[in-house]
User: Fold 23S rRNA (Adenine-N6)-dimethyltransferase from Kribbella steppae.
Amino acid sequence: MDAAGVRPGELVLDVGAGLGALTAPLVRAGAQVVAVELHPGRADRLRRRFADAPVTVVRADAADLRLPSRPFRVVSSPPYNVSTALLKRLLAPGSRLVSADLVLQRAVANRWSRGDAPGANRWYYHYDLSIGLRLPRKAFTPPPHVDSAVLVLRKR
Ligand SMILES: C[S@@+](CC[C@H](N)C(=O)[O-])C[C@H]1O[C@@H](n2cnc3c(N)ncnc32)[C@H](O)[C@@H]1O
Assistant:
């Protein structure tokens, strides 16, 4: 969250919002948040938890996301199995994405930051991609089988 540098009033998507671990600090930073969550029970809990906050909860598949028509940022820890589909969607022509800070499987984040992802060369004209915080598996409960890292995208 600190590294993302979200400012008050910015529109931020939290994709795979879970129970709101990132949604809550985004609200504290003053963001207008769209929390996307596929699981119906978690989406309901998010709605209840953020009923009085500037949070819109959308029950949707991250791989099939409708993007905002105005500039937006993404701060998210999405499910690993939709990482590639989500990145392609965020970087598709016409996207108003300004920046993204995504917790991904480290190998996937490294591949994208090296420009070694399918069709990746296209977006290097428009975005800088780099590796941010490295997160060991023990940073999560329960620990996954792989390490993670934040893939940082910034529009040039
Ligand atoms: C890795 S957890 C992250 C939860 C929370 N953001 C956090 O940092 O603790 C991913 C979340 O994505 C949700 N999810 C799984 N598949 C999804 C999909 N296809 N679209 C949207 N959300 C999905 C899961 O239900 C889960 O809550």
